[in-house]
From TrEMBL:
Source taxon at top rank: Bacteria
Lineage: Bacteria, Bacillati, Actinomycetota, Actinomycetes, Propionibacteriales
Residue ranges, compositional bias (Low complexity): 1-11
Ranges for region Disordered: 1-25
Organism of origin: Kribbella pittospori
Alphabetical list of SUPFAM superfamilies matching this protein: YdhG-like
Entry protein name: DUF1801 domain-containing protein
Length: 148
């Protein structure tokens, strides 16, 4: 059953994807093609980071440096147009800049391939308004655990 029919059957209307969501999906398709052609993922990631506003760029660069130092087994790549870091081809963690979806904060998040399980419930995304030494310390610990 498609999304429109599912929404109609529940009495709700389906508005479709936002322009930002469609853009992210198109970027993901381009990324998959680039990966298939053997394009350098780190260079593509750095290029995307360079396009960000200064405050988001600084956070993304710092997170990249933390991951390189504390989880060297993770490889940089783009994930839906955002910086991501993968293990065995699967994205473990990512940085979503606030401007990507016009939100009020950036997000540092983890996918299900991250090794963060802690009981029956655990956080997988963190809002980032700015990146101070305290946040860096927490990110270091999370990345080490996620990549283990």
């Amino acid at each position: 059953m498609n999304a429109k029919k599912a929404a109609a059957s529940k009495g709700k209307s389906y508005e479709g994807f936002t322009d930002e969501e469609r853009g992210a999906m198109k970027e993901h398709a381009r990324e998959m093609k680039a990966a298939a052609l053997g394009a350098a993922q780190e260079a593509a990631q750095l290029e995307k980071i360079a396009e960000m506003p200064a405050d988001e760029r600084a956070m993304a660069e710092r997170i990249g440096a933390i991951i390189k130092a504390d989880a060297p087994g993770l490889t940089p790549k783009l994930w839906y147009g955002m910086p991501g870091w993968a293990k065995g081809g699967k994205v473990v963690c990512f940085f979503q800049p606030a401007g990507k979806f016009k939100s009020r904060y950036s997000t540092f998040g983890f996918n299900d391939s991250a090794n963060l399980d802690d009981g029956a419930m655990w956080p997988i995304a963190y809002a980032l308004a700015k990146l101070t030494a305290a946040e860096e310390k927490q990110i270091r610990a999370l990345v080490k655990k996620a990549a283990s």
